[in-house]
TrEMBL record, chain A:
Stored Pfam families: BPD_transp_2
Membrane topology field: Multi-pass membrane protein
CDD domains linked: TM_PBP1_LivM_like
InterPro entries associated with the record: ABC_transp_permease, LivM-like
Protein name: Branched-chain amino acid ABC transporter permease
From TrEMBL, chain B:
Family statement: Belongs to the binding-protein-dependent transport system permease family. LivHM subfamily.
Keyword presence, Transferase: no
InterPro entries from the UniProt entry: ABC_transp_permease (IPR001851), BCAA_transport_permease (IPR052157)
Membrane topology reported for the UniProt record: Multi-pass membrane protein
Chief place of localization: membrane
Localization per Swiss-Prot or TrEMBL: Cell membrane
Transmembrane stretches, start-end: 12-35, 96-116, 136-160, 191-215, 227-250, 262-279
Keywords annotated in UniProt: Amino-acid transport, Cell membrane, Membrane, Transmembrane, Transmembrane helix, Transport
Listed name of the protein: Branched-chain amino acid ABC transporter permease
Pfam families in UniProt: BPD_transp_2
Native source species: Geothrix limicola
Lineage of source species: Bacteria, Pseudomonadati, Acidobacteriota, Holophagae, Holophagales
Membrane listed as a keyword: yes
Length: 348, 289
């Protein structure tokens, strides 16, 4: 089986390169980009399990991301509980939240489910703003002093550079990828896909709809909360709009949809496209490139305007991408790639 | 008692504008079965249009409705013809995503042009009030906007019930295929419906411009409110959206007074979830199979 061998070898090479990368790349900016990439992969992949495989398009995943981020940060800030313990509380809380949401939202179908998922996330966001004693309200929680991570008295890392975050991010991304692979190839995955394709048919075949939807939701929510906790401790700051806002839900969903729902590599592809593009906009690389090429003069009104404003409007790009993807490749990039591949095969 | 009457009256007044937003969304849903997630952003475009007309041409926001309504109608028709029309038969999630994408484009383009600063449109009567008696006073701009809303809603009912085009729109909403078989140009009705829905949202934007902060992200709040209103009234029901709007207005203003203004939106969303759970077809909706 040369094809499987090829896959295994290329996988091992990529993994090895990723593991070795911090040894050779010292630029904190490059590491930061990689960490964002890992975070996006794990967000998109978590959403994929519920949205892609089970077909339940939640537009409220900020709820789980935010609960994970907030719990870890609150425990660290108020009670000095180290994040590697706090994370577990976050996950436990998210399971409770997810089951509560599931029991409400899974009675509803299609657009009603989407609306309910948004409403729940909004209730959590508004609560985070209003419960000032617990969450510090709209000001958010700032907690950047991470304790050193020790195993048996030996200090493993003190989190002084971005390298430990890089490895945590990598593990997180690989974990979500592995769980998605497992879901895809297990009985659970087949049940979920049956529910996605035809809920009534699946029900008549004896698949317990609400049970498997809830299982998918809990897996997806727990992984999203892990990503949230990681985001919180990496950035060192959480506030309601950045971890619980509607934008967060939309961005999580977009990674998966642009890449391709219900596919193992879709969210990876989506993250590979979205992260560099939005970072390029955010850091004004695009304006600088336009100036370099000579299309726009740096001192002209257009140049100054772009420099001033383009960085704030990186979400515009998300909008344009979504519209293009939905109109021209509704199966996402993965679907597009597959179509190209099958066309080439036919021609050969 | 005065406090109660006061919050009841201001709830009804703001509810009138909410009704306009909800009717727009419900019209679009009724005719096309598409939930417009960019509805609030269309309202936001209407707000900025009003702001521009006021700042550069000195046109009073309430007079500018005469300009905003037709312009937003054309804008909505354009959105329908170029974008929404292509996904009418696509999966529901793709329709939702497309409208989310369009909303993001609208809000971020506006942000690119006007920056995300809060703008205030202050007229001579922005903070004026009228004493009604019994210690109850009414905000003048809210009262004017309510009267305009009532006028537009009445005209809309007349249009939908009495004119041929209005009946064709209702027929399309009832059964798209049957309407097509009866010789109704369904595509044209869709453009009309999206245009009308956008015009109503834009008008609502114009009407609240004198009393609200104007900023690019203002739409998200109204998109969510529009959902709550239409689901409460029953998706696709114009009467339901009218009642739903007023009901949400009253709920908001009551909970702002008796609970706290920070929690008023939470109350609305909890109400929304309860309706979804116990009466998903809404107050006026027929139960769906």
């Amino acid at each position: 089986m040369p094809k499987t061998l090829l896959k295994a070898v290329s996988g091992a090479v990529v993994l090895g390169a990723l593991l070795a990368l911090p040894r050779y790349v010292e630029s904190p900016y490059a590491l930061h980009m990689m960490i964002l990439l890992f975070l996006s992969v794990s967000q998109g992949q978590s959403w994929n399990i519920l949205g892609g495989y089970a077909g339940q398009h939640s537009v409220g995943h900020a709820a789980y991301f935010g609960v994970g981020a907030y719990t870890t940060m609150m425990l660290m800030h108020t009670w000095q509980i180290a994040p590697w313990f706090g994370v577990w509380f976050g996950m436990a809380l998210v399971v409770v939240v997810a089951l509560a949401i599931g029991s409400i939202c899974f009675r509803l179908r299609g657009p009603y489910f989407v609306l309910a998922s948004i409403a729940v996330a909004e209730i959590l966001r508004l609560s985070a703003i209003n419960l000032t004693t617990l969450t510090n309200g709209a000001e958010g929680i700032l907690a950047t002093d991470l304790p050193a991570f020790r195993i048996g008295g030996r200090v493993v890392t003190e989190f002084l550079t971005k390298v430990p975050f890089y490895y945590i991010g990598l593990v997180l991304a690989l974990l979500t990828l592995a769980i998605t692979y497992w879901v895809q190839h297990s009985k659970l995955g087949y049940f979920l896909q049956a529910i996605r394709e035809d809920q009534d048919a699946a029900h008549s075949l004896g698949i317990s709809i609400s049970r498997y939807k809830n299982i998918a939701l809990v897996i997806s929510a727990v992984l999203t909360s892990l990503a949230g906790s990681f985001y919180g401790i990496y950035v060192g700051f959480v506030d309601p709009p950045t971890v619980l806002g509607l934008d967060v839900s939309v961005q999580i969903m977009l990674i998966c949809i642009i890449g391709g729902m219900g596919t193992l590599w879709g969210p990876v592809l989506g993250a590979l496209v979205l992260v560099p593009l939005s970072e390029a906009l955010r850091s004004n690389l695009i304006t600088e490139a336009l100036v370099q090429v000579g299309l726009v003069s740096a001192e002209s009104r257009v140049g100054l305007f772009l420099k001033e404003n383009l960085a704030h409007a990186h979400v515009l790009l998300y909008g344009i991408l979504v519209v293009l993807v939905i109109l021209f490749m509704p199966e996402g990039l993965m679907g597009f790639v597959r179509k190209l591949a099958s066309r080439r095969k036919r021609e050969a | 008692m005065a406090v109660f009457m006061q919050s009841l009256i201001s709830g009804i007044l703001i509810g009138g504008v909410y009704a306009l937003i909800g009717i727009g969304l419900t019209l679009i849903f009724g005719v096309m079965r598409v939930i417009n997630f960019g509805h609030g952003d269309i309202l936001m475009v209407g707000m900025y249009l009003t702001y521009l007309l006021f700042t550069y041409l000195g046109i009073d926001p309430f007079v500018s409705v005469l300009i905003t309504f037709p312009l937003m109608f054309l804008f909505g028709g354009f959105l329908q013809k170029v974008f929404i029309n292509r996904v009418l038969n696509a999966a529901a999630q793709n329709q939702i995503l497309l409208t989310i994408g369009l909303g993001l484009i609208m809000s971020n383009t506006v942000m690119l042009i006007f920056t995300s600063d809060y703008k205030i449109l202050s007229t001579s009567y922005s903070s004026a009030t009228i004493q009604v008696g019994g210690g109850v006073s009414v905000s003048t701009p809210l009262l004017i906007s309510f009267l305009i809303t009532a006028g537009i809603t009445a005209a809309l009912y007349w249009f939908l019930l009495k004119t041929d085009t209005g009946q064709a729109i209702r027929a399309t909403a009832q059964d798209r295929e049957a309407a097509q078989l009866m010789g109704i140009n369904v595509k044209r009705m869709s453009i009309l419906a999206f245009g009308l829905g956008s015009a109503l949202a834009g008008t609502a934007g114009a009407l609240i411009a004198p009393t609200y902060y104007i900023f690019p992200q203002v739409g998200a709040v109204f998109t969510l409110k529009a959902f709550v209103i239409t689901v409460l009234g029953g998706m696709g029901s114009v009467v339901g959206a009218t009642l739903g709007g007023i009901l949400i207005g009253i709920t908001e203003s009551m909970s702002a007074v008796y609970i706290s203004s920070g929690w008023k939106d939470v109350v609305v969303f909890v109400l929304f979830l309860l309706v979804l759970l116990f009466r998903p077809s809404g107050l006026m909706g027929k139960s769906r199979t």
